[in-house]
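Issue 218. Parser rejects a valid record. Input:
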Amino acid sequence: MTDLAQKIRQGDTRALARLATGIENRDPKALETLRELQAAGGHARLVGITGPPGAGKSTLVDALAVELRKQGKTIAILAVDPSSRASGGAILGDRIRMQQHHADPGIFIRSMATRGTIGGVARATADLARLMDAAGRDYVIIETVGVGQDEIEITSVAQVTVVVLVPGMGDDVQAIKAGIMEIGDIFVINKSDRPGAERVELELHAEGFDCPVLRTVATEGKGIHELVEAIEKVGQALSPVNRARWQAEAPAPPSIDHLGIAVNNLADSIAFYESLGLAVANRETILAEKVDVAMLPAGDVRMELLQPTSRDSPIAKFLEKRGPGLHHVALRVPDLNAAVSRLKARGARLLNEPRAGAGGHIYVFVHPASTGGVLLELIQESKH
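Output the parser choked on:
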């Protein structure tokens, strides 16, 4: 285990914060450390707090933290905030949000910017939740932005989703029930000392929601103990299903399959690589791509030499524009369809739907605009 991973397992909050920053920035070394820590996870209760703006989610999370600390639990709070247009960072900071906890080592608070991600959660939220779990926190509480119906993405991260409502909604329950209402494992009517709390509760029951409905006044700590009990009860009932989903969403990392190199003359290029001791393992013509292909294994990675068979071939256009050279990098993934779904959800630009390519493998190309400047090919990992 690396030094950074060991420090995190030993409770070093500075190391935890440093790795969290790396994960948010999608630093490859940080992601590798997260994979190293993954085996230590699987114990935390993952709780999503969502609901419309103004429902008092932050105050409720703060009250939950106080109650859980009374019970001796350690907590990580991931507060997903809107992004600043100037800096790209979170507009609301943890120092403003929950100042009373700053000296408590049992509470780790992280404000995250959405960075343009829809769905109420940031792209790195799931990875940070896994990190906090692996760091030994008893509870990981994820508070979403507060964008209304779009917040359903929290269900892909949390084991228990708490939907926070407030009195005065009335008919609004009907209006938003097709969105965030249908993802709730627990409903909380916060600010329930205001007129209309009973009406909201009646509306929920009238609409057929049979999950727990609790009333709280988070500013006074009222109903918070009961909420913790409900979270535990629901979490224990759903734990086998959620834990399986949680573990399934941590796919094995991809590995490099081959480097695609555009060449003007396949025979000359093969001769060059053969002079290095490589040998052609496969040659074929891909009619759909209008290209002749030669595969030369180089250890666990292959060199894929590509010569166009037509002037309107994508490789011919590449050669005309850039000349011979690296055309794409190909990664093997354990579940191509799942990878494609995740990429689509994040707005990545795909150039094709999964289809058969050289050697019969199933592949998808991802536009350089989404990858940092290189054409990326994702290949379904062979089971043989």
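Fixed in the parser; the record now loads. DSSP finds 13 helices and 15 strands in the chain.
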